[in-house]
Amino acid sequence: MTDLADQKADARKAAFARRKAARDAGHPAPAARLSEVLAGYRGAPLAGYMPIRTEIDPRPAMTEATAHGPVAVPVITGEGQPLKFSRWTPDGPMRDGPFGARIPLQDDWVVPEIVVVPLVAFTASGDRLGYGGGFYDRTLEGLRARGPVLAIGFAWDAQEAEALPMEATDQPLDLVVTEARILTISR
């Protein structure tokens, strides 16, 4: 492993522990706060995600958003590929996807303008640490090349790190929504 890969692995290990502790402590998921943010973008195509492991659950906000416009979830199409997003409805039929995330039974592709991004850790400057596959980085880079895209990190406050090891290809967040605040990132 390279030094940067080692640093990221160490940061992930510490962040996973903080995220699990926040979830296990019973902190309320800030879905209402996420809904409040999304209300300002009603009708814009939205991508959420199906939570896995100890990820915070965005589905209540996603469910509310379906009344105003298309909502989709990520589909991994292959290693090293950007994500695609398939339309999701709260009661729609689902199937197992890679890494344990559920995906819609039938693909109905949507190009989102807002992406709610799962994460392991974040910083106040908008850096994000994920699982290490680079899926969201490739995806956000491609979407941003097409036009404006709002990347919203969704996490517990406990997932904030003072600093994270970053690479030139890592895509920043525009907002972070936690149980305590809405953090707008300025660049």
Automatic annotation (TrEMBL):
<keyword id="KW-0479">Metal-binding</keyword>
<dbReference type="InterPro" id="IPR037171">
    <property type="entry name" value="NagB/RpiA_transferase-like"/>
</dbReference>
<comment type="similarity">
    <text>Belongs to the 5-formyltetrahydrofolate cyclo-ligase family.</text>
</comment>
<dbReference type="Pfam" id="PF01812">
    <property type="entry name" value="5-FTHF_cyc-lig"/>
</dbReference>
<dbReference type="GO" id="GO:0009396">
    <property type="term" value="P:folic acid-containing compound biosynthetic process"/>
</dbReference>
<keyword id="KW-0067">ATP-binding</keyword>
<dbReference type="GO" id="GO:0035999">
    <property type="term" value="P:tetrahydrofolate interconversion"/>
</dbReference>
<dbReference type="InterPro" id="IPR002698">
    <property type="entry name" value="FTHF_cligase"/>
</dbReference>
<dbReference type="GO" id="GO:0030272">
    <property type="term" value="F:5-formyltetrahydrofolate cyclo-ligase activity"/>
</dbReference>
<keyword id="KW-0436">Ligase</keyword>
<protein>
    <recommendedName>
        <fullName>5-formyltetrahydrofolate cyclo-ligase</fullName>
        <ecNumber>6.3.3.2</ecNumber>
    </recommendedName>
</protein>
<dbReference type="GO" id="GO:0005524">
    <property type="term" value="F:ATP binding"/>
</dbReference>
<dbReference type="GO" id="GO:0046872">
    <property type="term" value="F:metal ion binding"/>
</dbReference>
<keyword id="KW-0460">Magnesium</keyword>
<keyword id="KW-0547">Nucleotide-binding</keyword>
<dbReference type="InterPro" id="IPR024185">
    <property type="entry name" value="FTHF_cligase-like_sf"/>
</dbReference>
